[in-house]
Amino acid sequence: MTQSIGEVAEALDVSVDTVRYYEKVGLADGPLRDSGGRRRYSTEEVDWLQFLVRMRSTGMPIRLLHTYAAARRLGPSSAGQRRQILEQHRAEVAARIAELTTSLAHIDYKIDNYARLEADLAGAHHQEEVPA
Hints:
Helix content: over 70%
Number of domains: 2
Organism: Rhodococcus antarcticus
Keywords: DNA-binding
Number of strands: 2
InterPro entries: DNA-bd_dom_put_sf (IPR009061), MerR-type_HTH_dom (IPR000551), MerR_fam (IPR047057)
Structural class: mainly alpha
Radius of gyration: 25 Å
Strand order of the largest sheet: 1-2
Largest sheet: 2 strands, antiparallel
Protein name: MerR family transcriptional regulator
Domain HTH merR-type: 1-67
């Protein structure tokens, strides 16, 4: 079963232009076309595009995706190179997650602090309105 470019873009939650961009810059091979000249994507092509989208969403640079894609085209003999690329990228993503987790903890602290302050102010305001 094949999918149109619109179906692929919708399934990957990206724009049609994004799918075309990956083809234009050589990260994805152009898919087969139907008799009307419209792109038709195989499951394998969609899986590859999904990988590209996921790697970009984690901040992998296009130049590194090019390196990975070139290695992928070499087949199984490049498994070690591709693993190394992904291990390095994983370490970078894990470091960013740790940094974001720390920042999130600070945000939570500030939110809790403001909530306590608001509760204290509301209590003080309520006490002022209560007749003695």
